């Protein structure tokens, strides 16, 4: 599963298995939903989303991941981009996130439904998101979305 657009530089000698993923862009009051992942001094920002489980579709994974990470229930609307991102997880495991970026509609927000204690929903301006997001693929997806909404 090779994406047309690949971000990141793999470290020599490491294998980066493809990991099917889906990430979402939800806008509310001109701000973009992001998650701040608490890793102490190595904390970072991501778009909500993550790996597909089992036979999940990207849409199903997106709905599940938004709920787990933010407590937000969303409805996927349109797949706007696809990219890969070489990276190393917090535990050092090398991966290549490969998948779609989706525009999604916010249906409801229930903080009690969030299960990932180290993830915090934050609303960033698109400009701040471009600067703060950990992965270049995420920033590129935000830029692609901005170009199509302007």
Write the layout of secondary structure elements.
Elements: E1 6-7, E2 18-25, E3 27-28, E4 31-37, E5 44-46, E6 49-51, H1 58-70, E7 72-88, E8 94-109, E9 119-124, H2 126-132, H3 136-149
Helix pairs in contact: 2-3
What is the typical, i.e. mean, pLDDT?
A: 95
DSSP E strands, number = 9
Series of secondary-structure elements, N-terminal to C-terminal: EEEEEEHEEEHH
Largest sheet: 5 strands, mixed
Structural class: alpha+beta
Helix content: 10-25%
**Structural shape:** globular
Please, could you describe this protein's structure?
- With 150 residues, the chain is an alpha+beta fold.
- It is built from three helices and nine strands, in the order E-E-E-E-E-E-H-E-E-E-H-H.
- It has helices at 58-70, 126-132, 136-149; strands at 6-7, 18-25, 27-28, 31-37, 44-46, 49-51, 72-88, 94-109, 119-124.
- It has a five-stranded mixed β-sheet with strand order 1-7-8-2-6. Strands 3, 4, 5 and 9 form a four-stranded antiparallel β-sheet that branches.
- Helix 2 runs antiparallel to helix 3 (136-149).
- The model has no long low-confidence stretch (mean pLDDT 95).
């Amino acid at each position: 599963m090779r994406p047309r657009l690949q971000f990141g530089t793999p470290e020599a000698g490491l294998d980066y298995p493809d990991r099917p993923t889906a990430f979402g862009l939800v806008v509310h009051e001109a701000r973009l939903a992001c998650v701040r992942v608490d890793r102490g001094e190595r904390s970072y920002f991501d778009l909500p989303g993550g790996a597909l489980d089992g036979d999940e579709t990207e849409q199903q994974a997106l709905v599940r991941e938004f709920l787990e990470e933010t407590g937000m229930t969303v409805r996927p609307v349109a797949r706007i981009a696809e990219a890969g991102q070489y990276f190393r997880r917090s535990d050092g495991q090398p991966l290549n996130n490969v998948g779609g970026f989706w525009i999604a509609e916010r249906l409801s927000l229930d903080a009690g439904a969030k299960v990932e204690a180290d993830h915090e929903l934050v609303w960033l301006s698109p400009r701040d998101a471009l600067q703060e997001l950990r992965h270049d693929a995420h920033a590129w997806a935000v830029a692609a979305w901005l170009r199509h909404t302007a």
